[in-house]
Amino acid sequence: MFIFKEILLNEEECNHILDSNKKTNVIDDFPEYKLRVKNCIQIFKNDVLSTIKIYSWVMRYEKNQGGPWHLHRGVKGHSFSANIFLGGDPSVGLWIRDSVTKEEVLHKNKIGEIIIMDCCTYHKPEINYNSKTRCVLGITIHDIDFDLI
User: Fold this and answer.
1) Are 120 and 70 in contact (CB under 8 A)?
2) How far is CA 65 from the centre of its chain?
3) Share of the chain above pLDDT 90, in %
């Protein structure tokens, strides 16, 4: 299983995104954060093409909410799933399933941390048993014009 993890935003920047109350294409409103995401993709996969499309949305998980196993639509090697933990209980994490071994690994959260994986990697948010809302910026990234495929 190959994933990339790095602290991308500080707590103030995470709050800045949450305070915007925007729900879709959030990262477009923050060009400096978008550039950081692009830089992380270059590190994750150094042969990505220069044109990168980034779609993003804020997910909020209240107490006892989580999500199903899923993957993001795209082209293997050219499309990536990512998320940035914006706030909530850091002990609630993201489950990632290895596509080869089927091993399921729980990655605990750190404020501002981005986790990037290939679009074909199944993942799901752990159920939030804490009363504090868990907030995540979900991201799908393409280094090709995916709309034309």
Assistant:
1) no
2) 18
3) 49
Q: How confident is the model at residue 39 (pLDDT cuts 50, 70, 90)?
A: confident
Q: Residue 33: phi, psi to the nearest 5?
A: -75, -40
CATH number of 4-148: 2.60.120.620
Do 8 and 112 form a contact (C-beta atoms < 8 A)? Answer: yes
Q: Rounded CA gap, 45 and 23, in Å?
A: 28
Count, in order, helices (H) and strands (E) of the chain: 2, 8
CA separation for the pair 124, 119 (Å, rounded): 13
CB within 8 Å of 130: residues ≥ 6 apart: 63, 88, 89, 91, 92
Question: Which helix H or strand E contains 32, and what residues bound it?
Answer: helix 31-44
What would the mean pLDDT of 31-52 be, rounded to a whole number? 82
Q: What is the pLDDT of residues 105-148, one digit of tens each?
A: 999 989 999 999 988 899 999 999 999 999 999 999 888 775 64
